[in-house]
């Protein structure tokens, strides 16, 4: 009887401790302009999105910055980006025939209709580096990795033997971009294979336990290998690391460092890309 009473008392104490309400209060901060834009060496429509920052627990849609004048220059030519829905979208687009030039440095210039954080203009500059030619890609299935196995995408390419290079990898399954957020991008430098032939290097790991990314025989896979700057490499690294705070109540990481001037946040990136495709074959038994 005494033992049962003690057990009941301990259970009550533990239950009461676990139901204590914890209020997390985050101070509001001043509004800042957020810039998210990329250009590539392939011909196409490229977009720059302008929004403003919002409080962490805000349930409202991110405010878009409309009616801005957005231009981009390679030092010789200046390109005007047009708002996709004038005065509504906050997304500014290049003409369909635009293609970034390898080796050029691009400067983005934004003139705002109204001041944000005391500024009406912001700028960002990014070099557009070349990229190694992607000869081919392949897929492998490793049933011994994880509960249901891991697929890998491997590449074959000659890596230049010049200075340190930085790469970003994206993959498409049946024409759909799977690595569609910064948290899913795969990035790497070339310190382990600088100047050598990348003969089947695994660059993408796909968890067969996740239905949304599982590969099946007959799927068409396209790998995009992009040459990026060290600054963009560091930016993606910071964004990906900012989502993993241990312990739970540890302080927030340092502010992610972008390349936007006048108090703006975000990044304007320029890169070149090489592509290769393959069709997934059934795993060998």
Walk me through what this model shows.
- The chain is mostly beta strands.
- The radius of gyration is 24 Å and the shape is globular.
- The protein contains 2 helices and 15 strands.
- Strands 1, 2, 3, 4, 5, 6, 7, 10, 11, 12, 14 and 15 form a 12-stranded mixed sheet that branches.
- It has helices spanning 2-18, 230-241, and strands at 33-40, 47-52, 69-73, 78-83, 91-93, 105-116, 119-127, 134-142, 150-158, 166-173, 176-177, 186-189, 197-207, 220-228, 265-279.
- A hairpin with a 7-residue loop joins strand 4 (78-83) and strand 5 (91-93).
Provide the descriptors you would attach to this structure in a database record:
single chain; 285 residues; mainly beta; 12-stranded mixed sheet; 3-stranded antiparallel sheet; 10% helix; globular
Quick synopsis:
The chain is mostly beta strands. It has two helices and 15 strands.
């Amino acid at each position: 009887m005494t033992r049962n009473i003690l057990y009941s008392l301990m259970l009550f104490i533990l239950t009461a401790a676990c139901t204590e309400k914890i209020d997390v209060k985050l101070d509001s901060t001043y509004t800042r302009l957020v810039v998210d834009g990329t250009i590539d060496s392939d011909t196409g429509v490229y977009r720059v999105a302008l929004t403003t920052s919002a409080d962490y627990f805000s349930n409202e849609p991110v405010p878009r910055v409309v009616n801005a004048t957005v231009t981009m220059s390679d030092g010789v030519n200046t390109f005007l980006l047009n708002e996709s829905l004038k005065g509504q979208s906050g997304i500014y687009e290049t003409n369909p025939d635009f293609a970034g030039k390898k080796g050029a440095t691009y400067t983005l210039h934004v003139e705002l209709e109204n001041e944000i954080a005391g500024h009406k203009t912001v700028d960002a500059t990014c070099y557009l580096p070349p990229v190694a030619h992607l000869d081919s890609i392949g897929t492998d299935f490793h049933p011994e990795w994880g509960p249901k196995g891991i697929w890998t995408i491997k590449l074959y390419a000659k890596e230049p033997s010049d200075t340190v290079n930085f790469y970003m990898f994206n993959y498409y399954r049946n024409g759909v971009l799977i690595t569609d957020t910064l948290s899913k991008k795969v990035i790497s430098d070339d310190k382990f294979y600088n100047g050598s032939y990348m003969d089947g290097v695994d660059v993408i790991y796909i968890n067969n336990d996740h239905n949304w990314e599982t590969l099946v025989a007959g799927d068409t896979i396209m790998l995009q290998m992009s040459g990026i700057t060290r600054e963009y490499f560091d930016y993606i690294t910071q964004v990906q690391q900012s989502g993993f705070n241990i312990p739970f109540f540890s302080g927030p990481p340092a502010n992610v460092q972008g390349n936007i001037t006048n108090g703006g946040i975000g990044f304007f990136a320029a890169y070149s890309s090489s592509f290769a495709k393959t069709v997934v074959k059934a795993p060998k038994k």
